[in-house]
Amino acid sequence: MKKSLYLVAALLVGTVLGFLLSEITDGSLISLVSDEVESEQPEILYWVAPMDPNFRRDGPGKSPMGMDLVPVYADGAEPAAGTVEIDSSVTQNLGVRSEPVNFGRLDREIETVGYVEYDENALQHIHTRVDGWVEKLSVKAEGDPVKKDETLFELYSRTLINAQQEYLLAKESAQGPLIAASQERLVSLGMTAPEILELDRTKTVSQRVKVVADTDGVVAMLGIREGVYVTPATHVMSIADLERVWILAEVMERYADAIKIGQRVIFEVDSKPGRRFEGQVEYIYPEMDPRTRSLKVRIGYSVQEDLFRPNMFARVSIIVEGEGDVIYVPTSAVIRGGASDRVVVDLGDGRFKSAPVVVGYESGNTTVISRGLDVEDRVVTSGQFLIDSESNIDTALARFEEHANDPTTRENVDAEILDVNLDKGTLRVKHGPIESWGWRPMTMNLKVSKQSMLEEVEIGVRVRLEIEKQPSGAVHITKISEANQ
Predict the structure, then answer these.
(1) How far apart, in Å, are the Cα atoms of 356 and each of 302, 391, 394, 433, 440?
(2) How far apart are CA 141 and CA 173, in angstroms?
(3) If exposure means fewest CB atoms within 10 Å of the residue's CB, which of 16, 118, 241, 242 is most exposed?
(4) pLDDT for the residue numbered 313
(5) Are 49 and 63 in contact (CB under 8 A)?
(6) β-strand partners of 252
């Protein structure tokens, strides 16, 4: 009995296996599995261009730019206005590169130019204390080097000769008060202590008095020649000490508030290529230059073995230490605009969007972003201009569709009348923003609904305009009133 049951079971199993093998052989089971796999794939609604979501086709093909169309599936969410989706192969072909934003302290380098000048605090101005004639001038031209205690010139003065004679007579009289008074007069007229001692020793009046240099340097200014008659008011010459110089730098007005006394400065001069010298800000001049709109900054530098010649050109970098952590990006990532600045944010998975930002200061090849980005964001640093233009087009179309169903729209805005055109029936106005329409402040020509409105306005006057947008897209001024105070 048991053998019969086993036999029947074996026959049933064999029959089932045979049926399955036959189904596999004729492909029906494979077709069934394939249908199930295909049913799991989302439905393709249409195909779009990678760089133009408004270019749609029912099947695969090429975009006007020659790129392969990409499918849009039924379960795919609609991208937000301004968001651009690009296939990974396309981003690679376009050379799109992105990197995370940086967060931390960023020292600022203000780059400008300057020139070398004498340290005026170290200038020695030569004047005589008595009138007379210049004889035996030792220095002949500006720029001549001089050494400390070197004779610059000799002065012949009748006043000084008479004072020496009076001193000798006072010495012979042996009257102490008279001797002291005579000696003080010699000192006041410019004679040095060694010269007075020589007069005491020789008891001979010197016909000429030597004028010597108090320090090493060069002749920065020479205002005399041999035989010239000079007085105490005559500026005879100036001697500059080249061991210390000034770098006078011109800083643009927008950087004026960042400059502080004591900041470190790095500068270079063309005569010493490849070398960098360090100084510091010593003085900030109080006035702006009205012609160049720049602020003059004085930088002190103590010369060691190098020679810096006045009027040398210098490239200057003033180091401004950062005050706290900031978000900063490569300057190449910032798209400068007339009304606002933007960056293209990499949202991931081939999605990008332009984001308005508030730009702070620049330092080298980086720019601080004061507002508009988070520390987790990534920004596009290459190929961002094409993505930005596509994102702005998408945003503009979204705004158009948003207001397309409005039969008419009226808004009020303050404006300034710039011109009146009676022939065309238009006003040229400079108006403020209209947020509901997505309008920024701009200057434009607007047609008035009644010609009589043109007789009620004056050029240069601020008014309150009521403007109406027609379904056709035309905009008319429907009412003109006094501007809000």
Answers:
(1) 47, 12, 15, 16, 13
(2) 46
(3) 16
(4) 92
(5) yes
(6) 294
The percent of residues above 90 in pLDDT, for the chain, comes to 9
CATH superfamily of 409-482: Copper binding periplasmic protein CusF (2.40.50.320)
Q: How many residues does the chain have?
A: 485
Extract the tokens encoding 120: 């005026």
Domain boundaries, the chain: 2-38, 44-94, 100-105+324-401, 124-240, 245-317, 409-482
> What does the alpha-carbon distance between residue 167 and residue 189 come to, in Å, rounded to a whole number?
13
d(CA 74, CA 78): 10
Handedness of CA 162, 165, 171, 172 (dihedral sign): negative
What tens digit of pLDDT does each residue of 306-350 get? 678 888 899 999 998 887 888 999 988 888 876 678 888 888 877
Tokens matching residue 319:
């180091």
Which token pair is 237?
A: 């010459």
Residue at token pair 């780059």: 111
Domains 245-317 and 409-482 share a fold: no
CATH pick for 124-240 out of 2.40.50.100, 3.90.1150.10, 1.50.40.10, 1.25.40.10: 2.40.50.100
CATH assignment of 245-317?
2.40.30.170
Q: Which residue type sits at 81? A: A
Give dist(CA 96, CA 380) in Å, integer. 7
Judged on CB neighbours under 10 Å (0-12, 13-18, 19+), 295 is buried
